[in-house]
Amino acid sequence: MLSLPASVVCYSLCPFLGPSDLLNLRVTNSRLLEVLHDEAESEELWKVMLIRDFGFQKDAKTDDWWQQTLRVEFPIPSCSSVFGIDPGMESPLLDAKSAFDSWKVWLRASRRFFEDLPNGEDAKQLIHGPYFLRAARMWQQIYSWCNHNPSLGTMIKQSFQRGLRFKDWDSRYRSEKGLQAAQAIYAYCGGQKVAMYSIDGFDGLFGGYQAYNYYCNSHLAPPGKPLGDNKHMVVSQCIFSNMNRMPKIFAVNMESGCLSLLTPSQPKTRAIKDTSVAPEEELLIWMEEFTRRLTAGMIGTGTMGSTPQDPASITLYPRWTNPPPILLPEQRVPHCSYSVTRGVEVVASAIYAPQAVESFGFIYSIRIRLVTPTSRDSRTGDHGDSSNYMSPSERGFETCQLHMRQWQITNFESGHTDSVHGEGVIGMFPILREGGYTDGGESFDGAFQYQSCSGPIQKGSFGGSLTFVPGCIDQPTGPPFEVELKPFLLDNSPAILY
Amino acid sequence: MQDEGNGIIRLRSCDDKVFELTESAAEISELLKDSPREEDDQVTEIDIVRVASPCLEKVVEFMKHYDKEKMKEIPTPLGASTFNEVMDQPWYQDFVSDEKVNRDMLFSMLSAANFLGIKPLLELTCLKVTFQITGKNAEEIRKHLHLPELTPGRGGGQGPRRAQLDF
């Protein structure tokens, strides 16, 4: 045995040996220890083992694809994940020093995840490394966002339940291939506690929106019994919707992993439009994309209402202003539009609400304020490059009041444009001042924001103008003027549904 | 022009015994395939200096049989928990059975297969060794394979540098 060349041991013999056998063989003899660790072939061996045992794939572009692995610590009661880590306090990731160290950690992670199964089922099972790595990275970002957005972020963190090991899943379904990605995700967080509506805020991780008296805020659901068809498991549920015939549920097909939106009035809708995506990864992709948008500020903290005092929530109205690349040039309308006229800034966007398609298709949110010297551009924060600020003398008024609205809603498919006009917005006529506004005698700080709905439409644009009066309507200090609302996109087939 | 499959190759062991096999059987070995052949109708004789006759005899037997019945490839992961379940071809099971082949011979054949570049024989012998190791702890493996704990010369005098893993 000892006279065999290292290459034979590493490339021909070891691939047949299971993880436990490899570990035992390693320590039988000092020469074998060298062969398996110090010889040139050994790094290659452990990389092959990473691929064989934990489902990794060699990356043609980088040589250190094996380097990032999970941190696995001794579990203590206060930590939230199965691996003994609290992602809110410390990184769930670790850089391994060698392929063997990486493999060793994945083995330890597998043993932790599959702990305590009856009849010693755990002995041989190994986790699918790439899913767990992606889940760890994702949770790290989610917790980081929560830490940077206290108040709402703290509420959300407090709702997270402890991570789940394999044995915590229903034994009838836990071996289904479609649940593998979910199990990686839930190892770090077992879902959110079902919350009551609170005036402090809505703590659904997946956020929501509000218009009139329709509220929707979605949670990461703890894994429960499958739905009546015994095929789907709910992963996201709208926890508060006072129009109960419009619940919004995202569920995973336990066999295939496909993620779908289920609503009573619509046929099942795939959450991810692109069907070339590997179905068993859909939940991971969906949550990763959500996290990306949250971290990049494309969606973020808002209120469920029209005043800053209304309960906070993650709101899904898009905040990005780049037009989507897929539309025809004449239809290059951004998801979120930005306009400034005479110091009045208007930011607007819409979100498609498929569960409410019978009553309305889109909820749009319009945010209006007077630009201030310290807060020049809502898109870039307080110190925007472009100075849209105009002093009261430059713009010709101290305050101004919203009087009328004129909308043009174009349907791209038919080419037809609807014109809508009326007084005020949702019955409100806010008076804008620098730093806040007044409505109905009450004074508020911050931008004036309101949500409303737009009827069913294929795909189109929503734009127009608002008529303002300098001073106030009862006592104008100048002639009325039009403030542009640049068109924003109404997209009823987004690439990913939330 | 030499007839591809029917020519005879002679292999001479390090202890001067000669074994004959057909060209097509010999080509299973990467080394023999690449070895130069004698011209015209001359029989090619190749010296296999690293392999002794008892082992070479077995290797030639393998190559001759493989020419007639190919051995199935061994999958990784193995997919079964006994040797006979993984390798279900009776001739091959018998070829490396404990009665026919002792531990030393098994490792000699493994080495020879590596040297001669006979992939199926290498796989078969490795598989056999695998099932001698699997399920045993370090001490049992050492006993079974007659391994000293320390190999003199390299790092002798020191224990294995890395402790058994602790989960």
From TrEMBL, chain A:
Transmembrane segments: none
Domain of life: Eukaryota
SUPFAM superfamilies: ApaG-like
Domain ApaG, first and last residues per copy: 338-497
Protein's UniProt name: ApaG domain-containing protein
From TrEMBL, chain B:
SKP1 component POZ domain segment(s): 9-67
All copies of domain SKP1 component dimerisation, residue ranges: 119-148
Top-level division of the source organism's lineage: Eukaryota
Region (Disordered): 148-167
Pfam families linked: Skp1, Skp1_POZ
Pathway info: Protein modification; protein ubiquitination
Keyword terms: Ubl conjugation pathway
Classification via Gene3D superfamilies: Potassium Channel Kv1.1, Chain A
GO terms of biological process kind: ubiquitin-dependent protein catabolic process
Family per record: Belongs to the SKP1 family.
The name this protein goes by in its record: S-phase kinase-associated protein 1
Organism: Cylindrotheca closterium
